[in-house]
Design a protein that fits this description.
The complex is a heterodimer of chains A (about 375) and B (about 400). Chain A contains 13 helices and 12 strands. Chain A is of the alpha/beta class and about 375 residues long. Chain A folds into 2 domains: about 170 residues, Rossmann fold (3-Layer(aba) Sandwich), CATH 3.40.50; about 100 residues, no CATH class. Chain A starts with 20 loop residues before the first strand and ends in an 8-residue tail after the last helix. By secondary structure, chain B is α/β, with parallel strands linked by helices. In chain B, about 30% of the residues lie in helices and about 20% in strands. The interface between A and B is large, with 61 and 61 residues.
């Protein structure tokens, strides 16, 4: 763990050049009776204000754990967080709880997947929203807080907010609860919003509404957004940059458009080929990734994806099984990073993968 | 997985060969299941000692469709639209309020419990949640073998060999028959559920959201497995899902439900390329699309306002009218029939038309004998062609929405 920097500093200074969120070499380890589980291993990324980062991966790939570290939600007694996370220039790793509390919900807020579980069933929605406001505005009166709650409910599109503010969470529908969660997350105008699978439990029409709302609000408040999901469609619509995680490591990182048209890592290809597309050619094949994600207690040697990789035979020798590839730029100076031994992934993708998963796109490419 | 050890030249192509393309439609297939005017009303009881019935949840309200032999019909819709209830009615986990379900020359809707038992061999179900649908205190062997014992098909000492055979069919290690469900991952558990459903060689499988609880990479494995099994054993599927992309891949024919009714039913190409119902159009426009966004720009969305109305007290006339941007007076007064408008296309809308080309005047007035505002029209002399608006199959003539005449193919 790194030493705690000046926690008491309340106002943060962000120089124009420095990105708002900087995560460097983040590792999170949990001790278990069977040995330590390294859920996140050496993940780095940066995020500027007004931009969206999408984190994709299967369950257990470390995407939620890494974002919870940004909010300092890991109990130091039960986990070891190493590396560096800077939010607006302020170091989070190792920060003491009182300082963290000032930050949490104020500068950094989180939207959880299951809104019914994240809202308290005994308290009225308005009271929960007002509490989030009062914690960070101790001088505000209750009436101010209530007014602010109504204002936020209205802003996220809940009809008759001055009436619904006194409802309990169970009286809201699924989409409205998610909206209330977003309202709670945004009530203190945070600069960084982490949305952990914000639409997974929702129907497509409601999902579309929520995604549109998130984008509107982001534009309005110029906040940085981290969106965690397993749905590449959501990524395609929302994110500027994408980070693909597998077994606790970043395996590919780059601009969304680049990543979705020219993915360079077999795991990303696998993700793309294992979800059917609503507009796809019906001759497109659905090619699953064989096997299951590895156990983090005993990760495979070399590249952690190698037991499931369909392209490991294209790498000479048993490099994939013995050596962990570095996260390197695709070409010199490129911002598109990949962790793979394949010498020319682009050629493999265009000539072999694309004809099977999207025959209609081959000619254009 | 055992295929990890194979290291021939082209691992990827070998794998790709095993992946399936989207299922194809066989238009001549005979229906294995014909559902007509099926209704399920659940009573709503008043609180207190005297539990009077104060209303009904109209979960499924008059739906008709056919599932072709060896084919699959997809059922999509938002949560609460009655798609799961439909699946449970077909497996007779509920007794329908009214309507008929013809299967193998019998009406499933009216069979008694005793008469149902032999039919249950032919109609099986795959459940959504592989964590709650397997008994944690039974071994996989006893879970998969239970149907054989219940139906007394093979002698007790031959149950285990059959169970092992089934586990192999669904891609599990047959040696694992004495393990408990908690020792398996989500995808493997779903395979156990599928093996259990296959035990009795069913002709119809009702798959209720079979992949939505699984991780993306595992979803594709299970979909491919279901497609393999369908080809091998010639099983018909009623595939219930909310994921429009998965349904499109698995089912050549798809029905869209809204608040207990089918609003549009068509073959895959028609439904996804030229949907005629505003609800279908809105649903399709809401699906995030990887390819679209990758090439830049975003599709124009049709935003649906508000929430789905309560099925206890559904809107009069067309049930979608409260959220529909095309709604006019007629929609509140007259319920649109599920009208055949193409060789394999039915839609229930007064203003049926392609996206952005909805007609100004209702297309159904002549057929229903009403005027543009939905009032009865005495001057209408056209005979009402009932057959186009009822029945579960397709007629060889249909109502063309462009010319507003009945044409035949």
């Amino acid at each position: 763990m790194t030493a705690t920097p000046s926690v008491e500093r309340s106002g943060t200074t962000v120089s124009d050049s420095d990105p708002f969120l900087v995560v460097e070499d983040l590792s999170v380890e949990f001790p278990t009776p069977d040995g330590p589980v390294r859920a996140v291993n050496g993940v780095s990324y940066t995020l500027e204000l007004g931009k969206t980062l999408g984190i994709v991966g299967e369950s257990g790939s470390g995407k939620s754990v890494s974002s919870m570290a940004v909010l300092g939600l890991h109990d130091p007694k039960r986990s070891t967080v190493a590396g560096s996370i800077r939010v607006g220039g302020q170091e989070i790793v190792g920060m003491a709880e009182p300082g963290m509390r000032k930050l949490r919900g104020n500068q950094v807020a989180m939207i959880f997947q299951d809104a019914l579980a994240a809202l308290h069933p005994f308290y009225r929605v308005g009271a929960q929203l007002a509490e989030a406001y009062l914690v960070h505005h101790p001088k505000a009166s209750k009436r101010d807080a209530r007014r602010r709650a109504i204002e936020m409910l209205d802003r996220v599109g809940i009809p008759q907010p001055d009436g619904r503010v006194d409802d309990f969470p169970h009286q809201f529908s699924g989409g409205m609860r998610q909206r209330a969660m977003i309202a709670m997350g945004l009530i203190n105008d945070p600069s960084l919003l982490i949305a952990d699978e914000p639409t997974t439990a929702l129907d497509v029409t409601v999902q579309a509404q929520i995604l549109d709302l998130l984008q509107d609000l982001q534009r309005e408040f110029n906040s940085a957004v981290v969106i965690i999901t397993h749905d590449l469609g959501v990524i395609a619509e929302m994110a500027d940059d994408v980070l693909v995680m597998y077994a606790g490591r970043a395996v590919e990182y780059g601009a969304t458009k680049q990543m979705l048209t020219r993915p360079a890592m077999p795991y990303t290809w696998g993700l793309l080929s294992s979800v059917p597309d609503v507009q796809a050619d019906t001759d497109a094949r659905l090619i699953p990734i064989p096997g299951n994600p590895p156990s983090l207690l005993d990760p495979p040697p070399g590249c952690s994806f190698n037991p499931r990789c369909a392209h490991r035979d294209k790498v000479p020798g048993d490099l994939c099984r013995t050596t962990l590839p570095e996260l390197l730029p695709l070409a010199a100076g490129s911002k598109h990073l990949k962790r793979c031994h394949l010498a020319d992934p682009e050629a493999v993708y265009q000539s072999e993968v694309l004809p099977e998963i999207a025959p209609d796109l081959v000619e254009e490419a | 997985m055992s295929d990890e050890t194979t290291s021939p030249d082209d691992l990827f192509h070998e794998m790709a060969e095993q992946g399936h393309t989207a299922a194809k439609l066989d238009p001549r297939a005979k229906p294995v299941l014909t559902v007509e005017d099926l209704r399920m009303y659940f009573p709503v009881k008043a609180p207190g000692l005297v539990r009077r019935t104060v209303g009904h949840v109209q979960a499924v309200d008059g739906i008709s469709f056919q599932v072709p032999e060896g084919g699959s019909l997809g059922l999509v819709g938002e949560s609460g639209c009655g798609k799961s209830t439909t699946g449970r009615l077909i497996t007779r986990l509920y007794k329908p309020t009214s309507g008929s379900m013809q299967f193998g020359g019998r009406d499933l809707a009216t069979l008694s419990k005793r008469e149902l038992k032999p039919v249950r061999r032919d109609v099986q179900m795959i459940f959504q949640d592989p964590y709650t649908s397997l008994n944690p205190r039974h071994t996989v062997g006893s879970i998969v073998g239970a149907p054989l014992a219940v139906h007394d098909i093979v002698p007790k000492n031959q149950i285990m060999p059959r169970v092992k055979e089934l586990l192999e069919v669904v891609g599990l290690n047959p040696e694992h028959y004495n393990r408990y469900p908690n020792e398996f991952s989500g995808g493997q558990r779903q395979r156990i559920g599928i093996a259990r459903a296959l035990t009795l060689n069913p002709r119809l499988l009702v798959a209720d959201e079979p992949v939505s609880a699984l991780d993306v990479s595992i979803q594709a494995q299970v979909i491919n497995l279901l497609q393999d099994l369908q080809k091998e054993f010639d099983i018909a599927f009623l595939f219930i899902a909310h994921d429009l992309a998965v349904v499109r891949h698995f089912c050549p024919e798809i029905a869209v439900m809204y608040l207990g009714k089918i609003v549009e039913i068509a073959d895959r190409e028609t439904l996804y390329a030229t949907p005629h119902h505003p609800y279908t159009q809105a649903l399709l426009s809401a699906v995030p699309d990887v390819k679209q966004a990758a090439v830049g720009g975003r599709r124009e969305r049709i935003m649906l306002q508000g929430d789905v109305p309560s099925p206890v007290n559904p809107p009069s006339g067309c049930r979608f009218r409260t959220r529909c941007h095309l709604a006019q007076d007629i929609c509140a007064k007259v319920e649109p029939p599920l009208l055949q408008i193409g060789p394999r296309h039915k839609v229930a809308c007064h203003f049926a038309g392609e996206l952005g080309k909805a007609p100004e005047r209702p297309v159904t007035t002549g057929l229903l004998g009403v005027d543009d505002r939905g009032n009865p029209d005495a001057s209408s002399t056209e005979p009402v062609d009932v057959e186009l608006m009822t029945g579960s199959g397709y007629e060889d003539r249909w109502f063309d929405v462009g010319s507003r005449t009945v044409v035949s193919g």
